[in-house]
């Protein structure tokens, strides 16, 4: 499959074209002379899951930080609801409907479920602005129940819950505080198959509720289960931009695994015998010879 950017296809399911909530147009981010992102374009639409995939160092974290208001982009344009914007802080991004659920979840393990639900957004009462515990407990319980999460004891420390439950609580919190676009940073990375399935169901629920979801992941199988649109980043650049109708899971997996580079590597390793077994023996210092076409470093960059 070609890695050339593919124009986004219109939906033909009769539901009409979804509204664009967040648009990135040729966005880049440079730290001095280092370009972490270059020429990234993305259209997050209402009622769609946009999956952003990439290996370590691909630029996924930088992209999240730009959208979440941690860092400002240095080139290109970002639009929210059609208006060009740059967020000055994560608080401003959140106030304007951008919620980010980070991989570490931003939860306090020793605090109760309800305290974590309102962490940073506590409800107070009276002239002394004391915490309105009863109201926060009631709202947290109601909102979690709406998402199908039943926790009998909201005073329980959130650290005692499973990874999947914590992810779902963080998602429910983001939705309650008015998110229009929810960014999920590797939500299934540290979860088993069953718990990953639970989180993927909630991603589908958010999509069906009309939110725009940005699903950051390195797992093409999880992405293909819920995604409508797929973007693959490599070294800060978009190498694939395709709608679900335009590719298969095998093609997405191949591109994620390296595409043409993987094919070239297979060709290079073609002469090796994977079934070869060497008898145990003493290896002398300096006895291991360099392979043909070994890597050398030129001006800080690897060269073959």
Largest sheet: 6 strands, mixed
What's the end-to-end separation, in Å? 24 Å
What pattern of helices and strands is seen along the backbone? EEEHEEHEHEEHHEHEHEEHHEE
> How many E strands?
14
Judged by helices, strands and strand pairing, the structural class is alpha/beta
Roughly what fraction of the amino acids lie in strands? 15-25%
Helical stretch tally:
9
Strand order of the largest sheet: 6-9-10-3-11-12
Overall shape: globular
Q: Quick check: average pLDDT?
A: 85
Low-confidence stretches: 1-7, 9-17
The portion of residues assigned to helices is 25-40%
Give me the Rg, rounded: 23 Å
Describe this structure in words.
With 304 residues, the protein is α/β, with parallel strands linked by helices. It is 29% helix and 25% strand. The chain contains nine helices and 14 strands. It has helices at 60-68, 90-95, 113-117, 133-146, 163-176, 193-208, 220-226, 249-257, 260-268, and strands spanning 20-31, 34-45, 49-53, 75-80, 83-84, 98-101, 124-125, 130-131, 181-185, 212-217, 229-234, 237-243, 296-298, 301-303. A six-stranded mixed β-sheet has the order 6-9-10-3-11-12, with helices on both faces. Strand 7 and strand 8 (130-131) form a beta hairpin. Helix 5 (163-176) runs parallel beside helix 6. The radius of gyration is 23 Å and the shape is globular. The chain starts with 19 loop residues before the first strand and ends with a strand. Residues 1-7 and 9-17 have low confidence and may be disordered.
């Amino acid at each position: 499959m070609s890695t050339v950017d593919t124009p986004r296809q219109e939906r033909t399911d009769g539901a009409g074209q979804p509204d664009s909530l967040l648009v990135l147009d040729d966005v880049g981010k440079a730290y001095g002379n280092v370009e972490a992102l270059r020429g990234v374009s993305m259209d997050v639409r209402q009622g769609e899951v946009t999956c952003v995939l990439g290996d370590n160092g691909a630029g996924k974290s930088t992209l999240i930080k730009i959208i979440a208001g941690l860092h400002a982009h240095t080139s290109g344009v970002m639009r929210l609801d059609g208006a060009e914007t740059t967020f000055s802080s994560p608080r401003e991004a959140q106030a304007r409907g951008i919620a980010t659920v980070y991989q570490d979840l931003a939860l306090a393990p020793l605090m109760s479920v309800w305290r974590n639900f309102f962490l940073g957004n506590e409800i107070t009462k009276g002239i002394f602005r004391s915490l309105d515990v009863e109201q926060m407990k009631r709202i947290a319980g109601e909102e979690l129940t709406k998402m199908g999460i039943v926790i009998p004891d909201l005073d329980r420390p959130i650290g005692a819950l499973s990874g999947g439950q914590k992810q779902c609580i963080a998602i429910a919190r983001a939705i309650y505080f008015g998110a229009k676009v929810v960014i999920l940073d590797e939500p299934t990375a540290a979860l088993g198959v069953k718990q990953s399935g639970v989180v993927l169901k909630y991603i589908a629920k958010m999509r069906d509720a009309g939110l725009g979801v940005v699903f950051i992941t390195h797992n093409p199988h999880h992405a293909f289960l819920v995604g409508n649109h797929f973007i693959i980043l490599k070294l800060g650049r978009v190498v694939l931009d395709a709608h679900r109708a335009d590719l298969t899971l095998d093609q997405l997996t191949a591109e994620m695994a390296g595409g043409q580079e993987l094919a070239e590597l297979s060709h290079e390793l073609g002469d090796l015998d994977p079934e070869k077994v060497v008898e145990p023996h003493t290896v002398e210092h300096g006895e291991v010879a360099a392979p043909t076409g070994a890597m050398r470093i030129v001006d800080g960059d690897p060269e073959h």
